[in-house]
Amino acid sequence: MNNRSDLLRLQEEITLCRRCPRLVRWRERVAREKVRRHADREYWGRPLPGFGDPRARLLLVGLAPAAHGGNRTGRMFTGDESGNWLFRALHKAGFASQAESVDARDGLQLTDCYITAAVRCAPPANKPNAGEFMNCRHYLVQEIRLLENVRVVVGLGRIGFEGALKAFRDAEKARFDRKPGFTHGATYASNGITFIASFHPSQQNTFTGRLTEPMLNAVFRTARRHLHHEGGLTR
Fold first, then answer.
1. pLDDT at residue 195 above 90?
2. What is the pTM assigned to this prediction?
3. Cα separation of 233 and 235, whole Å?
């Protein structure tokens, strides 16, 4: 099996998905109506596949695309302030070629890192429902099976973290006797894979100081350290 070509086929399949009528209506409405600051831009308005290095050992799992970020640019965490925070931290840790991502064609390259999400369409009020999570988990499970080198997983926000745990369980790549609790910076290990919980770099967290740049940088220093030691457990 050629995992790189299978991953490309999966990415294409994701962009064509219309499983969730509520999300389809919302993402397409946002793409038509836009916001004033992006009124002259053409929006992507479709589901977003993951992106990055097919040989990645580090996997990031977020919640869902932002209405005027990824849903506009067509790439995860691209074109909004959450992405700016994330890519600054990834760049500092050596996983991203640049510290800013404004457009899907801006030259950003990820090394040893792949970014995906629990839900692939921008949801109303940034809140997918239970059925939408279930519909999308199928794609995350497939990605996990194809990304065979993953050794460290960072869950961005409680939903991203718990979504990652469930998908790895469904992919039969991790198992926990007790559900790991979500605490920023906590690490858990299963089957040679380390899971790290992180607050999401949303403006709700960064504007209030709940998440600071040193805190986010520390998450990726931890990820780098575990990759160096091939995924041991620290608490």
1. yes
2. 0.94
3. 7
